[in-house]
Hints:
Keywords: NADP, Oxidoreductase. The chain is α/β, with parallel strands linked by helices.
Amino acid sequence: xxxxxxxxxxxxxxxxxxxxxxxxxxxxxxxxxxxxxxxxxxxxxxxxxxxxxxxxxxxxxxxxxxxxxxxxxxxxxxxxxxxxxxxxxxxxxxxxxxxxxxxxxxxxxxxxxxxxxxxxxxxxxxxxxxxxxxxxxxxxxxxxxxxxxxxxxxxxxxxxxxxxxxxxxxxxxxxxxxxxxxxxxxxxxxxxxxxxxxxxxxxxxxxxxxxxxxxxxxxxxxxxxxxxxxxxxxxxxxxxxxxxxxxxxxxxxxxxxxxxxxxxxxxxxxxxxxxxxxxxxxxxxxxxx
Length: 289
Ligand SMILES: NC(=O)c1ccc[n+]([C@@H]2O[C@H](COP(=O)([O-])OP(=O)(O)OC[C@H]3O[C@@H](n4cnc5c(N)ncnc54)[C@H](OP(=O)(O)O)[C@@H]3O)[C@@H](O)[C@H]2O)c1
């Protein structure tokens, strides 16, 4: 029988790197460290080799369709399939400035949401029956980050489609571009709006992905890893990367297979993603203090 395969996107540093490290210690199979930049990826592999951990490496820029295609072909030819896929790669352009430019907002939404659609299209068909997919979202991905009633209703609709989510992402970008963005539409005074929109879109998409893959008993969940000391937060946070990898590793290796389509908090609590009145939204003062 062919070996099991795990893949983590954006894993040359940060939480993705720690998930690869944990998988290398605990997952019985091949673990792929992937990065958009070859040199950064290989440096990360060397770091793990010093710990006597030996991941496979492949370049993978999720925002570059050609790169995703090359990676898909490589996995198909070498292994035939994927058992664990972690959609971790993301950016928070201008996050700590709290006032993004349009280009930063577009880049954030492109990488954090639209690129995951490319991964879904090209890599999900390789995920084997009974596999697991984990989307690393954020507290910014809980529905309570959205205050616009129309979008709360539309994103909560049980007949949600991927088109609804794309329109949500484009609604924000358009409103930013044409100067009609209303800060009251987003929690916390409209701060970090693009990142919130990208992660709400990702967590909403998780629910659709779960439906799509249910017949093959593949578990798809999204989660918030906590506020973690990484480059994304310029080192601000309550947890280091290995602590932050604990719940992702639990979800990938130990959680019951029937945990599906859930939004999971860093302490393993399963939250009601639809509870738009809840207090789970990101408060920018937590990184400003
Ligand atoms: N840190 C936190 O407090 C926190 C809180 C909530 C959620 N999260 C989420 O946790 C995940 C990991 O974040 P982190 O804090 O570990 O951030 P990080 O240290 O900045 O790492 C992000 C990783 O994603 C990669 N990446 C970015 N764009 C990519 C692309 N187009 N294709 C492939 N890889 C790409 C980066 O590669 P480069 O090195 O080339 O830039 C890097 O390896 C993200 O989804 C983030 O949104 C983090």
